[in-house]
Design goal:
By secondary structure, this protein is α/β, with parallel strands linked by helices. It folds into two domains: 145 residues, 3-Layer(aba) Sandwich (Rossmann fold), CATH 3.40.50.300; 78 residues, no CATH class. 37% of the residues lie in helices and 26% in strands. The chain is built from nine helices and ten strands. The strands form two sheets. The chain has a six-stranded mixed beta sheet with strand order 6-7-8-3-9-10, sandwiched between helices. The protein has a four-stranded antiparallel beta sheet with strand order 2-1-4-5, covered by helices on one side. Helix 6 links the parallel strand 7 and strand 8. Helix 4 packs across helix 5. The longest helix has 18 residues. It is globular, with a radius of gyration of 18 Å. Bound molecules: adenosine-5'-diphosphate and magnesium ion. Magnesium ion binds next to helix 1.
Length: 247
């Protein structure tokens, strides 16, 4: 049975007079990919930053796994089960793939574990990192220096680093940006694997990938949701076609 893991109600973010995100309501379900599309400046990144706690909303609220997390810091929201990848990379290039994932795993020792012995914390972080590396398909690149792997693999590594914190909700901002078609295909396959057991918000410009991956779509223009539904419903929506898809 699927469940709502993240629920945002009437989210608004104003920068001066500009409502970058205007009364947006969105639910993210476990085992489902929810894509947000819209032209540049629509408010997609701002929405992602609101959900992750990197920005505080002007109005509205956010529930994560049934808890009101409105106004929480990004660190606290991360510990509560939300993982995000940034458009800008967090990878430490001189370190190996394994070291990057292992560091990310360490950065999130759950609060509940503070009484554990150091040895068991180290073991748990090792196990989290191993699982993340495996899930992201990066075992073969384990001992490569991050600077030496391909651009597509670096994006996989960012996702592995996010997975190492064991999130239940994943926010991915343009994971396919700058990829060739073979790399994009690998990333699409990875995102489909990650759909299992996660709720996912996907901001992506690659419409082929979006329509192949998304269970649900939200279309934003100028901070507002202008349409939403299944890919088939959104494709058939005349207002979306004129405002955005240009078909
Ligand atoms: P998208 O990711 O869909 O391209 P953004 O969320 O980045 O859109 O931006 C939405 C709008 O908010 C744009 O008009 C942008 O210029 C504005 N904006 C974003 N961040 C800020 C900020 N920190 N201060 C002022 N305006 C911002
Ligand atoms: Mg953006």
């Amino acid at each position: 049975m699927s469940e709502v893991l993240l629920s945002a109600r009437g989210l608004t973010k104003r920068f001066g007079g500009l409502a970058a995100v205007n009364a947006v309501t969105i639910d993210l379900w476990r085992d489902r990919i929810h894509a947000v599309i819209g032209p540049n400046g629509a408010g997609k990144s701002t929405l992602t930053n609101l959900l992750s706690g990197d920005l505080a909303p002007t109005e509205g609220g956010i529930e994560l796994a049934g808890r009101d997390v409105t106004g929480w810091s990004p660190e606290r929201i991360s510990r509560a089960g939300l993982g995000r990848s940034y458009q800008k990379t967090n990878i430490f290039l001189p370190f190996t793939v394994w070291e990057n994932v292992r560091l990310a795993a360490q950065s999130r020792t759950p609060h509940a574990a503070r009484w554990l012995t150091l040895a068991s914390k180290v073991r748990a972080a090792n196990e989290r990192a191993e699982r993340a590396l495996e899930l992201a398909g990066l075992q073969p690149r384990r001992d490569f220096v991050a600077a030496a792997i391909s651009h597509g693999e670096q994006r996989q590594l960012e996702i592995a680093m996010t997975l190492a914190t064991e999130p239940r909700v994943l926010l991915l901002d343009e994971p396919l940006a700058g990829m060739g078609s073979a790399e994009a295909e690998r990333m699409v396959a990875l995102l489909l694997r990650l759909k299992q057991d996660h709720a996912m918000l996907l901001v992506e410009h690659d419409m082929d990938a979006v329509f192949a991956l998304a269970d649900h779509l939200t279309v934003m223009v100028n901070g507002q949701v202008i349409a939403g539904g299944t890919p088939a419903q959104v494709r058939a929506d005349a207002s979306v076609q004129s405002a955005y898809l240009g078909e």
